[in-house]
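Standup notes, protein team

Yesterday: finished cleaning the Paraburkholderia humisilvae set.
Today: Carboxymuconolactone decarboxylase-like domain-containing protein structure.
Blockers: none.

Input for Carboxymuconolactone decarboxylase-like domain-containing protein:
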Amino acid sequence: MKQENAGNADHVAAGQRELDTVYHPAHAAWLRQLKSFCPDYFSIIEEFGLGNLWQRPLLSAREKELIVFSTLITQGDAEIQIRQHVHTGLKRGMRVEEMLECVILLAVYIGVPRTLTAIHIIKSELESMQ
């Protein structure tokens, strides 16, 4: 049991590092506010998502970002999360050109409305960073 708790503590610490180093400060703060309202859901994000899944070594953080970024675009209605992953994608080594190339490729598979929205979000997020 103690070993499991130590593993959980490691995952929590890794999740906290991810929030502190790659997330946009406003989005990280928004997620942390969620902790007091629904701590179990926050734990899924911090401990399991960021602290476990994002720490797996087979895919690089940049590759994972490209996958997540693509899936968010395909889902539609994920503007806040797409904005966040423009930010984290850049911090994890993605280039803007790669994001746009991803959107261009997706246009054939998911259509113009979702990909045009994604381009608007990318452009808007980049402008807000300047």
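Follow-up from PR in the comments: Helices lie at 2-21, 25-37, 39-50, 61-75, 79-91, 96-110, 112-129.
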